[in-house]
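[Automated response] Your request has been received and processed.

Submitted sequence:
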Amino acid sequence: DKKAGKVFVFNRDGKYLRSFGSRGEGPGEFKYPLRIDALNGKILVTGFTKVSYFNEQGGYIKFETLSPQMQPLSFIDENRYLFKGKNKTGIPFLNLYDFSSKKVIPLAKYDLKIRTTKSMNIISSQKNDPVFGTPSSILYGKFDRCEIVRLDLHGKIIATFGIKTRPQRTVSKEEKIKRVGQKMINRLKGYMVDGRSAVDAYLDTIPDKDPYYYRIDVLENGLILAFIPNDKKPGIQLDIFSKSGKYLYYSDLVLPDGLKMYKLPVISGNYLYAFTEDEDGEQRLIKFKISLPKA
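Generated structure:
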């Protein structure tokens, strides 16, 4: 809960168990929690400037200082994580950071589609980055083609796989407006930027094409799930690959009428948890029972 600065814990059936943390900047407090990860019996809560560590019962352990320019995309383990940034020549790169050694390891040129409107000081990029790290390898999705790259922890390409025939999806102006939100559009109306409307200038910062995948997950059994962006079709669409990269099948989970996704889904065991929101802004957690193939 970003407003309260708390982490709420539920069991797999949705029963409330406990909460921990509070709003603030001290030990065990969160000013603005951005993500939660469970690794090796620890719970990591990431904010703009620090990563706080807790045990499974919510007991505070420690924190690590975090640069706002090095926000984690995926944790490899409790000490190492992946982030996107630019190298010395200004080229976007996928990097690995190690809290223990305080070192940054450049891994690979990263397809980061960014548009800027200098007079508005706006930078727009992919909302979510298809990156997943494990202690043995790293997976990331390409922007310009339907391909997933597997790297070792030094940036060497181990394998590539994907669906060559899939076309890239174009984002319409109406979809851009929906993503920005009507409140922001109303705030910009009536203003001009470089001789054109501020609304059009803002919408131009959003890429005209979607990434092929907005998220990649690797399950405990090794299955690779690649989530497909699609504003026109409510629900969750994903491609499923074996742990070796063989394409298995496409899956489409339909949400109840009137609901839309507002956070990334989570898969645990034989269940998928969808974080949804209705037209009135009420949030609901929907539990799907799923059947997955062998890895």
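Summary generated for your ticket: The chain has three helices and 28 strands. Residues 114-127 have pLDDT under 50 and may be disordered.
If you did not submit this request, please reply to this message.
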